[in-house]
Design a protein that fits this description.
Rossmann fold, about 260 residues, globular, single chain, seven-stranded mixed sheet, 2 domains, Elongation Factor Tu (Ef-tu), domain 3, seven-stranded antiparallel sheet, alpha/beta
Length: about 260
């Protein structure tokens, strides 16, 4: 983990409200693994010293570039979206435990909205291709699926309004695949309700389910205990810090 001054290279708009931020941060790009995140201090928010956590969407050690996919949802991301190219941002990372990269079966990646961000990084590092299941409220919330297809991944989509793919929750196409009986391993990132549903399916089918938890964070380094999650261990239940003990947990560990 390093705290570096990263240079903003570009902001690439995606669907409404979504963008990909490209940063020049060689030290972090060289160390990053799928599932880890960075904690960013936004220079125009000096009145608020708190950093904002973002999953790492991709990292290129050869160019020293780091990529973050985000949605404008509040004050911090509004200021982030307004930054000019060349701006320096203080970035702490990479933080947290990454996804395991040795699936026992076909990898099934399950993303909700911009939860797809760490799944792209994961897809580029896994030793075999699998299926991406991605869900959102509307077609505008389905992001970067062509990149997965071009990389050799099958993509199955669900939207709640039926504007793209299957109408309903992302667990609908996931259930179809799981009931086909193929040996699989699940990797998921999205809202808690989706993560819990994916974890329950992993347990029910007797397979591993790796879930990326999202909690409000203050320090990002495990000192403040603001992002604790109750988990099971061989010695009983305990409180884990999502920032440094996670954000990746196996489904059987989590006490919802």
């Amino acid at each position: 983990m390093q705290d570096v001054a990263a240079k903003l290279i570009s902001i690439r708009p995606l669907a409404q409200g979504y963008s990909v931020l490209t940063l020049e941060a060689p030290a972090i790009a060289a160390e990053a693994s799928p599932g880890q995140f960075v904690h960013v201090r936004i220079p125009t928010l000096e009145a608020s010293r708190l950093r904002r956590p973002f999953s790492i969407y991709d990292a290129d050690p050869a160019t020293g570039r780091l990529f973050v996919l985000y949605k404008v949802v509040g004050l911090g991301t509004r200021h982030l979206a307004a930054l000019l190219e060349g701006t320096a941002l203080q970035v702490l990372g990479p933080i947290g435990t990454p996804f395991p990269l040795t699936p026992e079966g076909t990898p099934y990646l399950v993303g909700g909205g911009y939860g797809v961000a760490p799944l792209w990084f994961l897809a580029t590092r896994l030793p075999r291709k699998g299926i991406l299941f991605v869900g959102g409220r509307t077609a505008a919330d389905i992001l970067e699926t062509e990149r997965f297809r071009e990389a050799g991944w099958e993509v199955r989509i669900a939207t709640q309004d039926g504007s793209l793919g299957t109408q309903g929750l992302v667990t609908a196409p996931l259930d179809v695949a799981l009931n086909e009986g193929q040996k699989a391993e699940l990797y998921a990132c999205g809202p808690d309700g989706m993560l819990r549903a994916v974890g329950e399916r992993a347990i029910r089918h007797g397979i591993k389910g790796w879930l990326s938890l999202d909690k409000h964070m203050v320090c990002g380094v495990g000192a403040c205990l603001a992002c604790v999650q109750r988990v099971r261990t061989s010695e009983g239940e305990r409180l884990a810090r999502v920032c440094v003990d996670g954000p990746i947990f196996e489904a059987r560990e989590i006490v919802w």
